[in-house]
Amino acid sequence: MRFIITGGTGTIGRALASDLLSEGHEVIVLSRNPVKGKAFLPPETRIVGWDAKTAEGWVEWVEGAAAIVNLAGARLAGPNPFKLRWTAKRKNLIRDSRLHVGQAVSQAVEAASKKPKVVVQASGINYYATGDEIATEETLPGDGFLSEVCTTFWESSTAAVEKLGIRRVIIRTGPVLHPESGPLPPMVLQSKLFFGGPLGSGRQWFSWIHPADVVAGIRFLMDHPEANGAFNLCAPHPLTNAEFSKVLGQVLHRPSTFRVPSFALRWLFGEMSTTLLDGVRAVPARLQSLGYPFRFPEAETALKDLLASS
Ligand SMILES: NC(=O)c1ccc[n+]([C@@H]2O[C@H](COP(=O)([O-])OP(=O)(O)OC[C@H]3O[C@@H](n4cnc5c(N)ncnc54)[C@H](OP(=O)(O)O)[C@@H]3O)[C@@H](O)[C@H]2O)c1
User: Fold this and answer.
1) Using a 6 Å cutoff on CB, does residue 52 contact ligand 1?
2) Helix, strand, coil: what percent of the chain each, to 5?
3) Which long-range contacts link 216-221 to residues 24+ away (Cβ below 8 Å)?
4) pLDDT digits (tens, 9 = 90+) for 135-149
5) Lowest CB count within 10 Å: 122, 211, 286, 288, which one?
6) H or E element at residue 28
7) Rounded to the nearest whole angstrom, what is the distance from the C-alpha of residue 73 to the centroid of ligand 1?
8) Paired strand residues for 23
9) Which pLDDT tens digit goes with each residue over 205-242?
10) Boundaries of every domain in the chain
11) Which atom of ligand 1 lies closest to the CA of 11?
């Protein structure tokens, strides 16, 4: 079967592409820079260039495809570690990149005569802003910047495919624990340098997920025709930031008592510090009700698996 992954050169897309290829499927990755993208993907991947705005040049691949997985979008944190703040320009990029790729996917689905069976639309658990309350898929969205990105720009960008009769699955994904990208590497470094510990109060919730469950969860949702609508893609046992840093310290045999004060994070990162200081206590209620078997439901086993060679 043929699978199309937009933004497939990224953390989640690479893992998903490898998994699909290992089972003999055809994988088409849409990338703004196919030459650079080649280095990140197995050689059997077909990398097709696109402008991330229109369906031009890639609709032919959509004909008869099993699924389109729409993962493309600008990172929440910019590439320069000294310029992580959300400037107005960065916010526009975060919003517009997601809106435009989603609209391009909708256009391509509309143009294809043999349409894909399912569109998987990326989103984030930052859709919610519930503090200590558990967030299931029934929970209403928050009203901060990231909630607005998720609702108004990201999730709605491919809503049009539903009107064409295509099944759509939205994956509200939690922070992915990847050893080389995302939130884990700085936490591991901090811990290894004996500065591990909570951020701010440490009471904010951290709804993490192991990369293996991201891939298997997406595959499960694609394979189950009854799966429709939004799914929280995070482990069933979220921890507070303090609990998570304690488990990380135990796995790395380091203390976890150094607290980074909230004001320092606010001063350094401005509004982006909300991603560190305002947690979301999301649970994968709908995935579990469909019977998805989590490979890594507990943070300790997940971290031991990911950091085995650390
Ligand atoms: N990783 C996580 O912890 C996490 C958690 C929740 C949600 N998500 C979301 O899930 C999606 C996939 O996550 P990921 O970690 O794999 O992301 P990623 O590593 O940042 O990869 C996303 C891909 O999107 C493309 N891209 C970057 N900037 C773009 C822009 N301005 N316009 C269009 N395309 C752009 C890039 O591909 P090319 O350069 O090849 O075009 C990039 O490889 C993202 O949208 C992310 O926000 C991720």
Assistant:
1) yes
2) 40, 15, 40
3) 216/19, 216/292, 216/295, 217/171, 217/284, 217/287, 217/292, 218/12, 218/16, 218/69, 218/120, 218/171, 219/16, 219/19, 219/20, 220/287, 220/290, 220/292, 221/120, 221/169, 221/171, 221/287
4) 999 999 999 999 999
5) 288
6) strand 26-31
7) 5
8) none
9) 999 999 999 999 999 999 999 999 999 999 999 999 99
10) 2-181+209-237+281-295
11) 16
From the CB of 139, is ligand 1 less than 6 Å away?
Answer: no
Q: Inform me whether the pLDDT recorded for 80 exceeds 90.
A: no
CA geometry: angle at 279 spanning 187 and 284, to 5°? 100
Task: Report whether CATH 3.40.50.720 matches the domain 2-181+209-237+281-295.
Answer: yes
Q: What's the number of CA atoms in the CB half-sphere (13 Å) around residue 52? A: 18
CA of 141 to the centre of ligand 1 (A): 22
Q: Copy the structure tokens of residue 242.
A: 């303090």
Tokens of residue 18, six digits: 């490898």
3-state SS class at 113: coil
| 309 pLDDT more than 90 | no
Three-state secondary structure call for residue 53? coil
Residue nearest to atom 28 of ligand 1 (CA): 74
Report pTM. 0.96
Q: What's the CA gap between 1 and 21, in Å, rounded?
A: 10
From 6, 12, 206, give the residue whose CB has the most ligand 1 atoms within 8 Å, as the site to mutate: 12
